[in-house]
Amino acid sequence: MLVGVISDTHDDYTAVRRLAEIFKHRGVEAVIHAGDWTSPFMMLKMRRVFPEVSIYTVFGNNDGDRYMFAKRAADAKVEVLGEGALLQIGGRRIGIYHGTAEVLVEAMARSGMFDVVIYGHTHKVDIRRVNGTLVLNPGEACGCATERKTAALLDLKTLEVELVEASSPSTQF
């Protein structure tokens, strides 16, 4: 099962649309967003590209209006998992957390509870293994801190990650 992983979109609709189109072209079966959509309306825009794909998200520190966020998520059929969650899809246990406390990301990775830990917040790509757990931060979709508009493709069968950019070819890890 191929999953698109994205974070820190911060209202960059053009980048979100481009990355979603890459996901669609590659045949992703689900999308995981690690928080900081910023505007709840961004979920509706992503849903337009993916009318049939499951989309899961956690809150980020810039997703302030939780009431409106939950309402728009319901309208867009996006499953909001709260601050952090265990998501079981594709035979894998995936921990999702925005990443505002780095120590929690590390604790999740070392806990043995997850096959994969997905986080965002730092706006920096992070692909590594900790005690057999894949740790994945897809970087930032908005490009506001690094000028790279990145997301990731995660193969849940092999746990291989491919980094994709809104404006360039992919990089295999």
From TrEMBL:
Keywords: Hydrolase, Metal-binding. Residues 1-158 form the Calcineurin-like phosphoesterase domain. Pfam families: Metallophos_2. The keyword Hydrolase applies. Its EC number is 3.1.4.-. Belongs to the metallophosphoesterase superfamily. YfcE family. It comes from the Archaea. The lineage of its organism: Archaea, Thermoproteota, Thermoprotei, Thermoproteales, Thermoproteaceae. Its cofactor is a divalent metal cation. One of its GO terms (molecular function) is hydrolase activity. SUPFAM superfamilies: Metallo-dependent phosphatases. This is Phosphoesterase.
